[in-house]
Design a protein that fits this description.
heterodimer; A: 331 residues; alpha/beta; TIM Barrel; eight-stranded parallel beta sheet; three-stranded antiparallel beta sheet; 13 strands; globular; B: 332 residues; 11 strands
Amino acid sequence: MRSIDIHAHLTPQCFWRSTENGGDWHGLKREQNARGYELAVIAGACSTLPPRARFTPEQRLADMDSLGVDIHVLSPYSGFYNYHLDVATVVATSQDSNNEIYDMIQSWPERFAGLATLPMQDVKAAIAELERVMVQLGFKGAMIDDKINGVTLDAPEFLPFWKAAEQMGAMILFHQGGNTVIGPRINRYHLPNSIGNLADRAITFATLVMGGVMDACPDLRICLSHGGGYTCQGIGRMERSWHDRPANRGQNTQPPSQYLQRFYYDCIVYTESALRYLIDTVGIDRVVFGTDWPYDMEFDWPVSWILSLDSLTQDEKEAILWKNLERLLNL
Amino acid sequence: MRTIDIHAHLVPQCLWRAFDAGETWHGIRHEPGAGQGFAVMEDKRVELGHPKIRYTPEARLRDMDEQGVDIQVVSIHTPIFSYHLPPEQGRLLARDFNDEVAEMASQWPDRFAGLATLPAQDINTAIDVLDHAVNHLGLKGAELDMVVNGRNWDDPACLPLFKAAESMGAVLFFHPQPRDNLVLARTDKYGISNSIGVTVEDALLVATLIYGGIFDACPDLKVCVAHGGGPACFGMGRLDRGWQVRSEARLHIQKPPSRYQRCLYYDCVTDSEPALRYLLDHVGSDRVVLGSDWPFVQWDDSPVAWVKSLESLSQEEKDRILWQNLEMLLGV
C-alpha cells in the first residue's frame, strides 16, 4: 500500500530566504500582518501564506509521515504563477521554483516528484521551460491556471503548448490562481474559493473540449483539481446544450460526455457521496489522490479518510491512493 | 394524480401587443429579426428565438396537454426583469405582468397559477407589489433574479422583503439569466454561459442565502431554486469545509451549510438521473418539485414522462415531485 498525492503545493525556500530582512525574490516581497501571518506581496497585492507553507523539506516529510502520505508530486504555490508580470521575471521565479523541486527530488527520490510552474503568458517560454523540466529535470508535468491573464486555454495561441505537452507526455494539472469567476460578484464567506474553484474547473473542462483541444491532442494528459469541480455534476446540461443548440457546438467531434474519460480528477470533493458520484461518472481509473497540502481547504487525514469509505471497494481505494498515479506518472 | 410545474416562463401578451403596435413595453424595444426578433433594453439585446414564447394562453394550454402538465406556475421570462428601471417604472411593468398572470389564473384556475415579478431594485416598492400580488391578485409568490443591479441577496437591505414574503407565505422562485451571468466574464463561447453559467448562479444563490443567515432569520420562508439548485448540493462538501476553516463563512450561521439544504425547494431540471437522485438523497424528496423550463428545454417526450421513467425513483418520490410537494407548498 502506498499513497501518492498529486495536489501538494510548495512555497519554495528560495522565496523565504530571499525575502528575509526585507529582501526581495525577483521583485516579490514578504510582510507580516498584525496577527503575525506571513504575506507574499506581488506587484502590491498581498496573499496570506499558511504556517506550513514555510516548512523545510524535512518538516514536510514529517508532516507527510503523520498523514500517511508517501509521495508528494510537488507543484509550486499557485500564488506565484505571476502570469501578469514581465516574462523575464516569471522565467526567473519559475526556474528557481522548479530547480528547488528538482533538488528535493534528488535528495528524496522516493518521496518527491515534480510538476513545474511555467511562464504561460509567453507560450514559447512556457514550452521551453516545460521541455527543460521534462527532459533535463525528470518532472512529470506542470500546474497551470484556468485562465492566463483572463484568456481560457482553448485560445489558438496555446495550441503549440498543448501539442508540446502531449508530445512530452506531461501531465498538466489545472489549479486556480488569483480570482475565480465568483470574485467579481461576491467576496464574502470564502465563496470565490468554495464555489469559484469548482466553477472555474468546469469552465476549463468545457472550453478545452469544445475548443477542440482534446480532439487536436488525443494523447494529452490533463488533471482537473478539486475533483474537476462541477464538471461531472454539470455534464448533463452541457450534453443537452450540445444536442439541442447546434449553434453552441464548438470544435469537438463528440458530445461533451464522451470526453469525461479523457481527463483525470483529484479526489478533493470532501464527501463520500460526491466521491462516489465522481467515480461512477468518470470511471475509477480517472480519479487520483490529492490533498491540497498545506492549505486550510485541504481535507483532513486524507489517507485514512479514503480507507474508511464504505461505498468504495478495496480496489477502488488503492486505485485512488496510489495505483493510478503510479501507472500514469511512472512512480 | 396531477402534475404541477413551477418552472414555466412567460413573455406576456401585453408585451407582444405593444410590439405589434410599434410601441415599446416599459422601455423594451422590439427589433425585428430571426424568430420573433429581439427585445432591446438599456444595455442588452435579447433574442426572442423560441416560437413558443409568443404563444397565447390557449396555445400554451394545448402544449401543456401534450406534455401532460396540468398546472403551470408561470413566471416572467428572466431577461426582461428590467431591474434597471426607476422603481416607479418597475412597479408599472410589474403591474402589467402580474395583472396578466392573475387574469390567466382566474380564467383557467385549474391550469395556471402565477408568480409575480417585482421591482426588486427598490425593496420597499417590491414588498408593496408582492403584497398586492399575493393578497389581492392571488398569485403564489414571485420570481427573482440571482443578483439585482450588483446587490446580492444577503445584503441586509433585502431582509425586509424576505420577512414580508415569509409572513405572506409567498414562494420566492430564483432563476438566473442565461445570457447575462458571471461566467460571461470568463468566456462567451460555446453557450457555456448557459450550460455552466446558469447552474453556477443557482449554486451561488443557494450558498449566499445559506451563508447570509436568511433561513435563521426567516425560518418559514419558502424559497425554490431553478435547475435543482445547480451543483450546490453536489458541491456542499466544499461549502462545509469553507465554514469549518474560515471565520468569515461563520459570520451569520452557527451550523454548517449542509444543515440548511433542506430549508429550500429545488426543481427537478437537473438534466440527468444521477444528478436528480443525488439531490433527492441529500435534500429529501419533500424538497424537490417538477419543473419543465418551458419552453426552452426540448424534452424527448415531456418532463412528466421523464420523471415517470426514472428507474432509481420510487413511485412515492415521483408523486411528491410531480404534484404533492407543490400542492402543499402553493395550496393549489
